[in-house]
């Protein structure tokens, strides 16, 4: 478990990770995060080669963010320095092992650029729905989706209140090969009429058949996870998290590990099990970036 490994063949190249790099501001400290950065961190740890495309401000937080990204072994050449906007921040309030987010708007990550050569030469794409919150980013995302047609495209349904749109979610689902969602996000999809009102196994199967996905996984916290592909549906048990941690970043670690193992050639059940183990380790730690 949790070993580095090479990804096979076509996935050894640069895997594009598009979206927000932000500081998670806790009551007593701050830590670098944002779902795409968290994903890139764990995807690299699993042996992948992520290329993160994001933006930070021309400020002290931006400089510190670039330093931390480099320290994590991830290149910063495609992280734009915005001369006008501040580096992104998310204020996090913890209650037990649950957390609430307040996303500070109109910061650098809402204005990301992507060089055309990166898009054309990438071996696949990861993005979260939050990255499409601005009109500017939507345009960049759409160009990336076009450039990555025929390649793996993973979308994390990172749905935050008032920061998603039904039509855009439906559009994304039709462009995607791999989707990851949690229990709350599946409920949102049901409320929007994008899937039917049935159990989680059925929800995963419907996402596969209705939108033409190759893979789907739904995390269910202490009740494990459900995954589906075009042939099978599986449910795996959760691994217990140790007391004293928080759940920040655990879902991103799950997604990165799940995807990396699928690319490696693991079965759906094997990939989900490995992802659940890593997610539990992260949930046992403080902050999004666990060292293990």
Protein model, in words:
The protein contains 9 helices and 13 strands. The strands form 2 sheets. Strands 5-4-1-8-9-10-11-12-13 form a 9-stranded mixed β-sheet, sandwiched between helices. The model is unreliable at 1-6 (pLDDT under 50). With 292 residues, it is an alpha/beta fold. It has 2 domains: 13-151, UDP-N-acetylmuramoyl-L-alanine:D-glutamate ligase (3-Layer(aba) Sandwich), CATH 3.40.1190; 180-291, UDP-N-acetylmuramoyl-L-alanine:D-glutamate ligase, CATH 3.40.1190.20. 48% of the residues are buried.
Q: Which blocks of ≥5 consecutive residues have pLDDT under 50? A: 1-6
State Rg.
Answer: 17 Å
Q: Please give the order of strands in the largest beta sheet.
A: 5-4-1-8-9-10-11-12-13
Number of domains: 2
Give the SSE order as H and E letters: EEEHEHEEEHEHEHEHHEEEHH
Envelope shape: globular
**Helix residue percentage:** 25-40%
Which structural class fits the helix and strand makeup? alpha/beta
User: CATH H level of the largest domain: which superfamily?
Assistant: Ribokinase
Multimeric status of the protein: single chain
Strand percentage: 15-25%
User: How widely separated are the two ends?
Assistant: 11 Å
CATH top level of the largest domain is Alpha Beta
Please summarize the sheet with the most strands.
9 strands, mixed
| Number of contiguous helices | 9
Mean pLDDT: 90
- Assign the CATH topology of the largest domain: UDP-N-acetylmuramoyl-L-alanine:D-glutamate ligase
Number of strands: 13
CATH architecture tag of the largest domain? 3-Layer(aba) Sandwich
Pfam family, one: PfkB
Protein name: Carbohydrate kinase PfkB domain-containing protein
Keywords: ATP-binding, Kinase, Nucleotide-binding, Transferase
Family: Belongs to the carbohydrate kinase PfkB family.
